[in-house]
Q: What sequence folds into this?
């Protein structure tokens, strides 16, 4: 088999479909659901397994894969695409990616609804909002990703809603400390999206795509992200012990974004270095958050 044949073979095509789901980010949606559910119920059951599987792969395939399909033209101009930060999908794979997301997600969603039962009807609404946000971000006619500020709100919904769903389906009591925690998480998500959009200002403008960064400018957007991360840290002070300790975990994010607080639009691509630091920081912070959750489970 020639190299060209291998690149066009089933294994290569399957690999491209999988790459479009951003494997490096799977944990960012699966972990919030699993942690919220386990810490609320104290058990490992079928709904935990099915929900974690859904938010691990199919959810991300729908979210990122659909985005790669409808952003193909702009991705051609974006040097970041074609690797861990997003697949540059050949047009022949577009239909496959969309259907792969739907076919893998639908059975798991059905099982989740069945296992969740009718005892917590609010969880159905949360899941519906979560799935709507996944499609609304990218699909033509909605394209929330091209509506400045709403793009960051929608993106944050992608990451916060799995946690809210886990809490809702587990029958959690939404106390003020818990609401403070979820709001902090939501602000973290908005900041992360806004900062990530800065590096794409030039290719997005060339493609005629609006974003919070193209609308407000690179420097202003970085400063908004810094403010949101700082606000998230302050909100953690209102959570149950040892939650307040997590307030210091915003410092690495502030460190990663701070050098770009005055970056010009023309030089905004340089913030990709800070974004790469952000990806690594997520893993370290995720580990530390996990340790705090385990601590909280023992002292509550």
A:
């Amino acid at each position: 088999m020639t190299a060209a044949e291998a690149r066009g073979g089933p294994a290569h095509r399957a690999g491209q479909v999988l790459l479009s789901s951003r494997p490096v980010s799977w944990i960012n949606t699966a972990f919030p659901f699993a942690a919220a559910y386990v810490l609320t119920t104290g058990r490992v059951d079928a709904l935990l397994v099915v929900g974690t599987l859904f938010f691990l792969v199919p959810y991300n395939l729908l979210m990122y894969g659909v985005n790669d399909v409808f952003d193909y033209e702009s991705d051609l101009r974006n040097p970041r695409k074609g690797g861990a930060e997003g697949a540059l999908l050949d047009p022949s794979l577009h239909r496959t990616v969309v259907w792969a997301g739907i076919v893998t997600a639908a059975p798991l969603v059905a099982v989740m609804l069945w296992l969740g039962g009718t005892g917590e009807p609010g969880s159905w609404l949360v899941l519906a909002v979560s799935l709507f946000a996944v499609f609304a971000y990218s699909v033509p006619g909605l394209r929330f990703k091209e509506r400045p500020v709403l793009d960051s709100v929608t993106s944050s919904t992608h990451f916060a809603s799995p946690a809210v769903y886990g809490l809702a389906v587990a029958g959690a009591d939404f106390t003020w400390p818990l609401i403070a925690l979820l709001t902090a998480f939501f602000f973290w998500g908005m900041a992360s999206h806004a900062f990530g959009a800065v590096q794409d200002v030039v290719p997005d403008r060339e493609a005629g795509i609006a974003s919070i960064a193209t609308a407000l400018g690179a420097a202003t957007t970085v400063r908004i992200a810094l403010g949101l991360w700082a606000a998230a840290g302050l909100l953690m002070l209102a959570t149950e012990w040892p939650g307040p300790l997590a307030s210091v975990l915003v410092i690495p994010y502030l460190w990663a974004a701070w050098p770009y607080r005055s970056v010009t639009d023309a030089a905004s691509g340089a913030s990709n270095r800070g974004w790469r630091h952000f990806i690594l920081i997520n893993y370290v912070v995720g580990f530390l958050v996990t340790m705090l959750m385990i601590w909280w489970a023992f002292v509550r």
The CA atoms of residues 80 and 86 lie 7 Å apart. The chain has a mean pLDDT of 87. The radius of gyration is 19 Å. The chain has 15 helices and no strands.
